[in-house]
Amino acid sequence: MSKVYFAAARVRKWKYDESMPGKLERLLKEVELSKYFEKEEWVAVKTHFGSEGAHRIVRPVFLRKVVNALKIIGSKPFVTDTVRIRGLDYLEVANQNGINHLSVGAPVVIADGLYGNDNIMVRTGEILGEIAVASLIYDVPAMIVCSHIKGHINAGYAGAIKNLAMGGVSASHRHCGWKCGRGSMHTIGEGKFVWDNEKCAFCYQCEEICPLDCIDFEDDKFNYKDERCWRCGRCTRVCPEGALTLPGDDELFMKSLSEATKAVLGTFKPNKVIYINFLTEIQPECDCMPAAEVPVIQDLGILVSDDIVAIEQASIDMLLKAKPLPESLAEDSGVKEGQDILQTLHKKPYMLQIKEAERLGLGSPDYQLIELK
After folding, report:
1. Whose CA is closest to 105, among 162, 61, 136?
2. Of 105, 49, 97, 43, which Cα lies nearest the Cα of 75?
3. Which helix (H) or strand (E) holds 42?
């Protein structure tokens, strides 16, 4: 049975040790980082830089605590993510969201190059075949995965598995394009947009939200650059009339996330990766959207484990017990206490991620919760 360490968000005493940063420091001491990471060893601190307007990411203060804990044992950390937009622009977004060398105390770098095509093809399994793992993540010997728990347009629930499957893989490959990158997960199914011109209100929100400027409405018709688009689905999410859809297979998508995660983790030796799930500012959408919604669930705390399946199961178990927050999308959607909030909002079979990850041998859903006193 895997150990999952937990620190609650509630502050019972007005002292630093009871603060969230203080509790994270204590958690990292509990897990004994020196059991996983060596002196002088480079360690990737994998997170999500967010987007311009999407500020509910893992806060820089927490990333700095992780960096400091690694420095204490003599390791050499850096903070990283793969590109969602062109690399220099993405680094500027990270800076706007407070993630830079000064704030986190370590270099902040792009894992798959400034153009997002610096990657290594890795064999996966029967669904994806192979996928483009970011070269920096492929090469680095150790990693701490810092994941912001939230909802997601495709995954329903986004945690450590999504962080690695989508964030450890490049958007595209320099030869086979998005079909070898994270787009291969997004587009299981037809992979072609369907536009209903009769429903379309020509509000152009889909065009405005596209991170790659793939969309236009020349001659009053929806057009997109097929070979450039990586099928992230943001355009379909923001369409207020439901005029734009991207057909896919939810079950295969969930399984592909776990398959891609296995490919990423397969580039590390055993006991070289640990996971930190931040159950804070739990909003209904991914941090790659151009805005952050108000949280649908109250802050719950921080989980740490060396078992990705166990920490994901523990995170979901906590979410299932949580109450929907008023004046949020949960209330707007009529979610009642006791309901699965993320399932009700997104209607995605997100538990398949965890079941498939277990089947692939990535960990066990059975865990011992060890709460910080």
Report:
1. 61
2. 43
3. strand 42-46
Q: Which CATH number fits domain 2-183+250-371: 1.10.150, 1.10.260, 3.40.50, 2.60.40?
A: 3.40.50
CB atoms within 10 A of CB 74: 12
Angstrom distance (rounded) from CA 62 to CA 65: 5
Domain at 190-245, CATH from 3.30.70.20, 3.40.640.10, 3.90.1150.10, 3.30.460.40:
3.30.70.20
pLDDT confidence tier of residue 189, bands split at 50, 70 and 90: low
Distance CA 161, CA 132 (A): 16
Which two structure tokens, joined as six digits, stand for 273? Answer: 């990766």
Question: Helix, strand, coil shares of the chain as percentages rounded to 5?
Answer: 35, 20, 45
> CB-based contacts of 291: which residues, under 8 Å, 6+ apart?
53, 54
Task: Please name every residue paired with 134 in a beta bridge, in sequence order, or none if there are none.
Answer: 119
**Alpha-carbon gap, residue 278 to 299, rounded angstroms:** 9
Does position 277 have pLDDT exceeding 90, yes or no?
yes
Give me the amino acid identity at 93. V
Q: Facing residues of 157 across strands?
A: 151
Q: Give strand pairing partners of 18.
A: none
Do 321 and 84 form a contact (C-beta atoms < 8 A)? no
Residue 258: HSE in the Cβ half-sphere, 13 Å Cα cutoff: 24
pLDDT at position 290 over 90? no
Max alpha carbon distance in the chain (Å)? 64
HSE-up of 174 (CA within 13 Å, CB side)? 11
The domains spanning 2-183+250-371 and 190-245 adopt the same CATH topology: no
C-alpha radius of gyration, the chain, whole number: 20
Kindly report, residue by residue over 33-77, the tens digit of the pLDDT.
999 999 999 999 999 999 999 999 999 999 999 999 999 999 999
Sequence ranges of the domains in the chain: 2-183+250-371, 190-245
> What is the pTM assigned to this prediction?
0.92
316: left (phi over 0), alpha (psi -120 to 50) or beta: alpha
Q: What is the Cα–Cα distance from 150 to 179, expressed in whole angstroms?
A: 26
